[in-house]
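User: Could you check the structure of this?
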Amino acid sequence: ASIGMADVTFVNSKFTLRVFGDTFLRLQMVPDVLYPTLNTDYFDAMKNQISAKQSNKFGVNGCEDIPRNAIVLLDINRYERKKNHALALHAFRLVIDFLPSTESKRCRLVIAGGYDERVLENLEHYDELRLLVDKLGLQESVLLLRSPNDDEKFVLLYKSNCLLYTPDNEHFG
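Assistant: Sure, the predicted C-alpha cells are below.
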C-alpha cells in the first residue's frame, strides 16, 4: 500500500517492471524505467591502463597461469546455486570435447563470483563446484575466483572472449 502512495516510482529495467507488475497486482500505477548509468570515465581509464601495459600476464590474481593466446570464457556471478555455475561447467566440458585438442588446450573457463565466508551457501556452493570441476576432469582449464575487485572484474571482462550468463529467470543486470 505504501508503494502505491508514492508520487513517482522507478524500476531499473523492463524485466523488473514485469516482476513489479506480477507482484503488486492491486496497484494501479505503472513505474517508469530508469536505467542505471555507468561511470564511463572509469572504463576509459582502465582500458587505457591495460593498453599501456601490454603485459604477457593476464593481470588478475589467480589467473597467472592463463596463456596469452588462451580462449577465455567468463562466468561472473555470486557463488549461489540459483546462479547456475554448474551449467557453465557442463557446457564448457562439451566445448572441450568438441574442439580439436590443439584448440581445447587453449580454452579456459573463469568463474568469478562474489564470495562471503559468513554465508553458508557461498561456502557450500564453492565446494560443490570444486568437486564438479574434478568430476568433469577440468582441473587444468577452470579457475574459480572468489570476490575479485572492480579492477580485476574489468580486466576479466576486457580480456575474455565469451561472457556466459547462466541464471534462470533473471535479467542481465
